[in-house]
Amino acid sequence: LQKLIHLLQATDDPLIQQQALITLSNSAAFSVNQDIIRNLDGLSIIGGMLSDCVPKVKEKALNALNNLSMNIKNQEEIQVYITQVCRNIESAPLNSDLQLAGLRLLTNMSVTSDYHHKMINSIPCFLHLLSEGTERTQIQVLKVLVNLSANPAMTRHLLRAQV
After folding, report:
1. What is the band of 40 on the pLDDT scale with cuts at 50, 70, 90?
2. What is the CATH number of domain 1-78?
3. If we measure between CA atoms, which residue out of 148, 145, 136, 8 comes closest to residue 64?
4. What does DSSP assign to residue 121?
5. Buried residues in 93-113 as b, exposed as e (16+ CB within 10 A)
6. Nearest-CA neighbor of 130 among 142, 119, 118?
7. pLDDT digits (tens, 9 = 90+) for 71-119
8. Coil, strand, or helix at residue 14?
9. C-alpha span between 160 and 156 (Å, rounded)
10. What is the pLDDT of residue 162?
11. Which has the closest alpha carbon to 60: 88, 30, 90?
């Protein structure tokens, strides 16, 4: 895991980055590895890949963060990327794998109400995706919206959103 994280830092080759991110994502399926990756500063390195200009690299980084977000301590570190994830969702092509990867991460990050406030500005985007997206996109958006709607503090924001 340490070598994969160092590889991500050392290379600019998008194909190598994607493969390293896929391997880290698969490794994160095991809870012990989630802690190891966090302790190796892997979350910030993977999170830094969200600003990469290659959509596939962003997508793989989102997938890795999604798997890593199953851990409360990891969520505390991943939450700093929520605004950027929302921007990636908004700017990604409609129904793209990148958009879906971002929505899956937000689904995990919105299970508790701790970070809902960071998603408020994206509610109009979510509602747009709900009306314009394919069934796969709609299902992912609905998961996020259901999580947000479970928080009474979000009611006003959800009902007043301009679509």
Report:
1. very high
2. 1.25.10.10
3. 8
4. G
5. eebebbbbbbbbbbbbbbeee
6. 142
7. 999 999 999 999 999 999 999 999 999 999 999 999 999 999 999 999 9
8. helix
9. 6
10. 82
11. 88
The rounded Cα 156 to chain-centroid distance in angstroms is 24
The ranges assigned to domains in the chain are 1-78, 80-162
Percent of the chain with pLDDT over 90: 97
Six-digit token string for 3: 């070598």
CA 133 from centroid of its chain's CA atoms = 18
One-letter amino acid for residue 38 of the chain = R
Alpha-carbon distance 67 to 109, whole Å? 11
The model's pLDDT over 130-147, given as tens digits with 9 standing for 90+, comes to 999 999 999 999 999 999
